[in-house]
Amino acid sequence: MKKVIDFENWNRKEHFEWFKTFDEPFFGIVSEVDCSIAYEKSKKENISFFHNYLHKSLVAVNLIKEFRYRIEDNNIVCFDKIHASATLNNMDNLYSMSFIEYHKNLIEFSKTVKIEEDRVKNLKGLGVFSYYEQVYLGSCFFVCLWVS
User: Fold this and answer.
1) Per-residue pLDDT of the chain (148 residues; tens, 9 = 90+)
2) Are 32 and 148 in contact, with CB atoms under 8 Å apart?
3) Residue 133: its H or E element
């Protein structure tokens, strides 16, 4: 579900008007994060580290209302829930895009990720069209993990 924001009375209206004129009105953050405790906990609990860090990222995104805002048909909307899209290995030994539904519970989320990993393993190519509406036009958060 989603809610259309009352743009005329929105406290971010002026900021939105300013930034919407930019060619790329968004930004990303790259940061080095020590995940050794989370990694050890994942191993101890027999949970994939990928599933764990993706889940924790989505927990944070879903807690912050502003991270759930999207532009849709010239309206600002706030989604109740943000899901994930990650690149997963496919049958071509390349990768395909995915749609991973968010669940608050890590175990349920991990089961969902496993189902999507199995689905994507059977794909060729990028697989972007099967979930285009949900992933690229709406309620998804993209996560990239770089290992150093």
Assistant:
1) 899 999 999 999 999 999 989 998 777 777 888 889 999 999 999 999 999 999 999 999 999 999 899 888 889 999 999 998 888 999 988 888 888 999 999 999 999 999 999 999 998 888 776 555 555 445 666 666 555 5
2) yes
3) helix 132-136
Helix or strand run (H / E) with residue 69: strand 69-72
Q: How far apart are CA 46 and CA 20, in angstroms?
A: 44
Q: How far is CA 32 from the centre of its chain?
A: 19
Question: According to DSSP H, which parts of 34-105 are helical?
Answer: 36-44, 49-63
Q: What are the domain boundaries of the chain?
A: 2-142
CATH of domain 2-142: 3.30.559.10
Q: What are the angstrom distances between the C-alpha of 83 and each of 4, 70, 95? A: 18, 13, 19
- Contact between residue 73 and residue 105 where contact means Cβ atoms under 8 Å apart: no
Residue 103, burial from CB neighbour count under 10 angstroms (0-12, 13-18, 19+) = middle
pTM score over 0.70: yes
Work out the end-to-end distance of the chain between its first and last CA atoms, rounded to an integer number of angstroms. 38
